[in-house]
């Protein structure tokens, strides 16, 4: 077991993970056109097909493509309308759309770009040209996604930062409100972390934060769960579609997992190793509640866990007595 003064974050398993192939969605009401594009791209990309605008939008809601090749002229819902729908939804607005169409007048291109397209290719397509343009826009998207992710990452621990948490809390609140699903929040504090820094030094404190963050991150397997550094030695975990019982169980598992790291903490009056305290709040969002109430309840429960001895979980449902009407705040 490394000494706390030289502790480093755990090394990732040395198992190579093959990169995911970019996901293309081809949208055209003519099967012959889709087949032609499919033959161009299927060896290098993961290719999906849709023969109508509504079918394309339905696909994007369940499985986000990295780029869409979209025909303009389609019955019922044309490509321009499809693109406007994609642009209006924050979850799909960043998907690059290349229009592929037999129309080639300047006004047609103008309308395509005004609808939100990133490029315009005339039929019949030249395989070399369309490959090059798709590769260019996928590269630009990857670079943009990387820059966007860096804005939302905590530089020390590598988990999401406070800004990312605030955005996800609002988005998941709206999602759970629409679906009538529970939303749970874990507020986590490393016990006696100031004493840890005073005893071992700030470099060791940084390493401790990294090890705790990595353990928290590994403990959540669902893609829509979020672990974020809330500030200092505090972390938060956002668990959409997870009720109080499930969230409490996850919190206890986290407590056990952090203690099992056996990071020495000689100055802690709670335990000889680093431990955490967790407040667990859960509710079903509705118009009479606010995300701030969920946060405040989790924070109050974290305070209760620390007051009752630390290295423990405190959870309780939000009662009507704790609910304050937003208009009366």
What is the quaternary state of this protein? single chain
Radius of gyration: 25 Å
What's the count of strands?
A: 10
Number of domains: 2
For this structure, what is the CATH homologous superfamily of the largest domain?
Reverse transcriptase/Diguanylate cyclase domain
The pLDDT mean sits at 89
Order of helices and strands: EHEHEHEHEHHEHHEEHEHE
Task: Report helical residue fraction.
Answer: 40-55%
The shape, in one word, is: elongated
Main sheet: strand order: 2-1-3-4-5
Q: Which residue ranges are poorly predicted, with pLDDT under 50 across at least 5 consecutive positions?
A: 1-17, 324-329
Strand content: 15-25%
Quick structural summary:
This protein is 43% helix and 17% strand. With 329 residues, the protein is α/β, with parallel strands linked by helices.
Task: Describe the model.
The protein is an alpha/beta fold and 329 residues long. It folds into two domains: 23-151, Response regulator (Rossmann fold), CATH 3.40.50; 154-328, Reverse transcriptase/Diguanylate cyclase domain (Alpha-Beta Plaits, 2-Layer Sandwich). The chain has helices at residues 31-41, 53-62, 79-88, 106-115, 127-151, 162-179, 193-200, 202-218, 244-260, 291-307, and strands at residues 23-27, 46-50, 67-71, 97-101, 119-122, 183-190, 226-231, 234-240, 276-283, 313-315. Strands 2-1-3-4-5 form a five-stranded parallel sheet, with helices on both faces. Strands 7-8-6-9-10 form a five-stranded mixed sheet, sandwiched between helices. Helix 2 (53-62) packs parallel to helix 3 (79-88) and helix 7 (193-200) crosses helix 8 (202-218). The protein starts with 22 loop residues before the first strand and ends in a 14-residue tail after the last strand.
